[in-house]
Specification:
two-stranded antiparallel ribbon; 17 helices; 49% helix; binds coproporphyrinogen I
Amino acid sequence: MSSETKGTAEKALLRVLRGEILSPPPLWLMRQAGRYLSEYRALRAEAASFLDFCYTPGLAAEATLQPVRRFGFDAAILFSDILVVPDALGQKVTFEQGEGPKLAPILTDEDFAKLNDEIDLRRLAPVFETIARVRSALPPETALIGFCGAPWTVASYMIAGHGTPDQAPARLLAYRNPELVQRLIDRLVEASTSYLLRQIEAGVDAIQIFDSWAGVLPPHEHDRWCIAPVARIVAGIRPHERNVPVIGFPRGAGSWLETYAARTGVDCLSLDTVVAPDWADRSLPRGLAVQGNLDPLALLAGGAALDRAVAAIRDALRERPHVFNLGHGILPETPIAHVERLVELVRREVG
Ligand code: 1CP
């Protein structure tokens, strides 16, 4: 097959994750299924709880497809949550309306002993069924992204038992009882690796590892709690015959992004809103794909601020494989018209 034929047959997102520079770049948005869409709010009302929603393939598949149908994004991301992993490890997880997640906190050896030794993949069967349904409904040019939370980020919710501004309970436990935190991280590395391998078998094209709380770690803890566990997951899924590319999102990693990229072996770095794209282009290994990093507030604001922010990101990353995205999840108040404008701005770029 000539490279040209092969190029046109492969999805744009995968071409960029494998190192090609495309203009216009592929585009999708973190948290693209969600409350800013009226059709999502209507669907959400059909399920009794958020976890029921995630575990009902008819609803979860529809939520995954909604933003692709409306905006023609280059990728769909599986509709689920990072906290289904603790749920499938036997920790009680609930989502209360307007309050976020609640989990029975793990603070002692006794709490840890209550977890399953292995992730219960049967409990997650509806997630794999969702992947199969989405796979068969997606246009051939649209990639499907599977995901998990990075061990540190998931552990920080398992330890605190709820969302916090700075994940102080997990950081404190990591100082007081590092052996316990290490056992929890090891359990999550194994659970996440098995979970991602099943997602790959069910049909996802790429994986994103969300480390939303990487940035709260002090320097001497980056390697132990963030980089090493993610590197083990990447090494664990690499041997899969489909060689599915991995996007890492170590939010807040800043000065240690280069080390994270080099040691974890991810194929693409998702940049948060404070990383300067021109710095990223100068500092990261040539050829490494980057994703990002429009400020969700610029998208909410729209107008000239949005136009300027999009142009600045593209100008800085024109010579590098780039997936256009936000620097964090889309906000529920975002007007649909601003997302439409973003699609137009990114797509009107001509080679
Ligand atoms: O109906 C509702 O209001 C539930 C809100 C909601 C949604 C839509 C939650 C609860 N999770 C999700 C979906 C979700 N979560 C996706 C779906 C796919 C998509 O992107 O469209 C993904 C990838 C996630 C990942 C996720 N969950 C992260 C990592 C990304 C990030 O935003 O930093 C984190 C930290 C979570 C935990 C979580 N789940 C839900 C909430 C409100 C939170 C944050 C809790 C907190 O810190 O306060």
